Give the backbone structure.
Amino acid sequence: MVREILMPKLGLTMVEGTITQWFVKEGDKVNVGDRLFEVETDKLTNEITADTAGMMRKILINEGGTAEVKSLIGIIAGENEDISSVTGKEESIVEAVKEEPKEAITFEAEERSDYVRATPYAKKLAAEKRIDLSKVAATGYNGVIVAKDVDALPEEIKVKATPTARKIAEEKGINLQEIYSGSRIRTSDVLAIEETRAKTDDAETEKASGIRRITAQRMKTSWAGTPMVTFNLEADMSELMELREKLKPVYAKEGLRLTYNHIIMKILSKLLVEYRYLNASFENDIITYHKHVNLGVAVDVERGLMVPNVKGTENMSLREIAEETEKLIEAAKSNKLSPDSLSGGTFTITNLGMFGMESFTPIINKPEVAILGINKIIDKPVALNKQVVIRPMMNLSLTTDHSLVDGALSAKFLSEIKEMIENPYLLI
């Protein structure tokens, strides 16, 4: 039986995935439960196992390739089984995956004598490289020009350059396409590139991973599209530190590590039930007030920043919050997070205190509307009962979406966090 392997959907927001590794190669025997491939999304990396037995007959997306969700990426079938019915449609499906990651292949209805059948991406590429599509040979489905056809053109067709400039570029290993702007490239242009390259030869470069690229894009979108305001307020940590010191040995007997994050998460769980504008999502002009408090915890891992969330913390004890949070952090560091743990967050905390930060501006994890930054605890002189004393102080950095959360509400919310930190018995 022919089995089509499709790019899995590993989360509600996943639209595409990158194949980071194939555990099998074409011709290998596959059993149910065998590891097939590893896929990377913007949030996590998952191993996908086989749900049918057979032979790995075809791999359509190689390692490093990206495909849209539910796109065909491979075929499992019997050794002598006819797979032409599947590979016959590979031309259109796979071409769309490889060349058109952002939009489907569409054609204009109007037929004209000068009309060239090409995918939108191929047209965009040709326009950028100033290539006449009428000179491009089509290899795509049904005689359509695709991006690889544009890329396959000989260099001399793509770029106008003097013979000397072309020769020097070839000797120096310079790609003329990268410096072509439409005007004829001359020797001086190539020499200028060579001079620039000489100045940067000691630099190291690498291609950004899928997670890093998409994280960067989301951060840019969040920053550009959200009027964020950060509020900073110092809190006296004396009482909270004393509470932690008393509870630490109790939790340690149960194999649990109690941190300041856990106690602050408990405080937030209590307050966010009352502050529904802070425990909300705001997207496409729709405000969603969440019934539960799902606290996201920013975790710095080797591949980038992960934000798993502890769900339903408003109904959890401090012990349960500590246990579940540590489980998620360990899963993030060992690359074993489930898609569910990375979706559905309603509020996020991020702690940079261990790096000595005294204040920073956390960026909201959209579509959430607020994030709380935790900073370093510093012994400072403060006035207490008209006496100068040394107290452990910590700055709280709250960033909110000002399009939904007014400044006064943000300030009031932060003030209440401070009050509960300084009087943790209010949690009872």
